[in-house]
Amino acid sequence: MLIGHIGLWVRDLEAMKTFYCRYFEAITNEGYYNRTRGFRSYFLSFESGAKLELMSLESMLETALETTFETNGMQRYGLAHLAFEVPTKSHVEALTSRLIADGYRCTSMPRMTGDGYYESVVVDPEGNAVELVAQSPED
């Protein structure tokens, strides 16, 4: 069985779409808008076949979102992180450096983990943790 897609409620739909398309080579659909519900979404597709649905709802109150997203963007109930697998250690390091240079926060610099991955963790525009992972540290 495969996961069909992951859905994220977001505050700034366009900024989040741009982030995942620019840094993770996502291809976006043209978007969906339901005027009756005030619902907008984009489906982003990745080379591997994975899909990410970014969603926003006009009626969602900022206070409701604040209970969902903690200010540090790391530990909270619900989604823990998204992980993008890259081919090598060099890819992890290069993309981490690019994101930092472009002003995104890195909460964990590239390193070997106890479970055998080489990874770093960056934070997307809305505080979600994004892991950059290489299964093999070899280049």
What does this structure look like?
A hairpin with a 5-residue loop joins strand 4 and strand 5 (51-57). The chain has helices at 13-24, 62-68, 89-101; strands at 6-9, 27-28, 32-34, 39-45, 51-57, 82-85, 106-112, 118-123, 129-134. The protein folds into two domains: 1-68, 2,3-Dihydroxybiphenyl 1,2-Dioxygenase, domain 1; 73-139, 2,3-Dihydroxybiphenyl 1,2-Dioxygenase, domain 1, CATH 3.10.180.10. The protein is α+β, with helices and mostly antiparallel strands. The chain has three helices and nine strands. It is elongated and about 50 Å long. The model is unreliable at 63-75 (pLDDT under 50). The relative contact order is 0.18.
Labels describing this entry:
139 residues; 33% strand
Straight-line distance between termini: 31 Å
Unreliable residue stretches: 63-75
Radius of gyration: 16 Å
| Architecture per CATH nomenclature, i.e. the level-2 architecture of the largest domain | Roll
> Structural class of the secondary structure composition?
alpha+beta
In CATH terms, the superfamily of the largest domain is 2,3-Dihydroxybiphenyl 1,2-Dioxygenase, domain 1
What is the CATH topology classification name of the largest domain? 2,3-Dihydroxybiphenyl 1,2-Dioxygenase, domain 1
What is the tally of beta strands? 9
CATH class of the largest domain: Alpha Beta
Helical amount among residues, as a percent range?
Answer: 10-25%
Number of helical runs?
3
Helix and strand run: EHEEEEHEHEEE
Strand-residue proportion: 25-35%
What summary fits the major beta sheet?
5 strands, mixed
- pLDDT average, as an integer? 86
Oligomeric description of these chains = single chain
Shape: elongated
Q: How many domains, as an integer?
A: 2
